[in-house]
UniProtKB/TrEMBL annotation:
This is Cytochrome P450. The lineage of its organism: Bacteria, Bacillati, Actinomycetota, Actinomycetes, Mycobacteriales. Its cofactor is heme. Belongs to the cytochrome P450 family. The keyword Metal-binding applies. Keywords: Heme, Iron, Metal-binding, Monooxygenase, Oxidoreductase. The keyword ATP-binding does not apply. It comes from Nocardia jiangxiensis.
Amino acid sequence: MSMPIVDGTAKILADPHSYTEEARLHATLAKVRASEPVSLVDVPGYQPFWAITKHADILAVERANRLFTNWPRPVLMSAASDEMQSAAGIRTLIHMDDPQHRVVRSIAADWFSPKAMKAMGERIEQLAKQYVDRMREAGGECDFVQEVAVNFPLYVIMSLLGVPESDFPRMLKLTQELVGSDDDELKRSAPADETMNALLEMFQYFQHLTASWREHPTGDLGSTIANARIDGEPLSDVDTMSYYAIIATAGHDTTSSSIAGGLRALVEHPEQRENLRANLDLMPLATEEIIRWVTPVKAFMRTAAQDTTLNGVPIAAGESLLLSYVSGNRDEDAFTDPFRFDIEREPNKHVAFGFGVHFCLGAGLARMEIGKFLAELLPRLTSIELNGVPALSATTFVGGLKHLPIRYTLA
């Protein structure tokens, strides 16, 4: 263990409920960035970790992917959950390092290429229109998260995988249980190990589909994964199921959080909303600002492969680092006026998608879904306001709004 440099305020990053109070969270992280940007967090229930809160330091760690590895602890979880996941042998893309990561990532890479995104554009536009029409049919009031934001990207990613539409509700429940394990409303109602049971239930579901895809290959991503070969051999059952799980969760919950959080930001900043509505050509910039503002992936973990230093702080081999994307995306040294929501922000070098070899595989799809939904909604929107108190999910990994009650009029 390195000589501890402890700033007690950084422990907020190990508290899932801190993410439900954004103002307090951001104020605390601003103090951490200013006083001890690399500080040790050692709290009950978790293995110790170094909190990395500066944008430049996050990039430095992400660039040095051989020095700072994803395996064995890619996500902040309780010590008990760390042990359970290790015992289950879960190995998704976020658990892997090169060269294995590069080879396994390539299996799905073509499905998220610019060419593939262009081919999907028309279908996503149709879906966006369908869900905006549903908002109109709802009579001018809805919980935008539960009625729109979680369903639109769910439909996109499950269709891409090849999951039957009749099973979409089941997939929604399982993905929310997986990323909402720290939230009293979203998690399963039983003990902590029920989160692992949700993952195992997802694995069991995809086992049946895998058998079908291998016997009768289809033209979807799920079939591509099921029939992939590395050095002539198929992926192991665990690696195959893990691949489906990361695509299903990462391709759904992050985008739904961004769409919901983006709409909330536009409601609360009407001048920005009207600017975007009048100038839809600003959508690419607005989309990046929404992603920075929301930061649906709160953090990732890395492990030092050897003794090193970061920002002058000694880090010992085997120690964990938490890359706080939420903090990095409000870093005063990286962004001008970082607490201002600005749809014309440029440059906007946010770290919400990560950086380097682990840059989000589905970033292009997420950007397209956010942009096309808002491009459909805003021209038809004549008024919108909050119709209650928004509620954020408790999490230390992926999350955002779980309720956004709104009142609106649509053309």
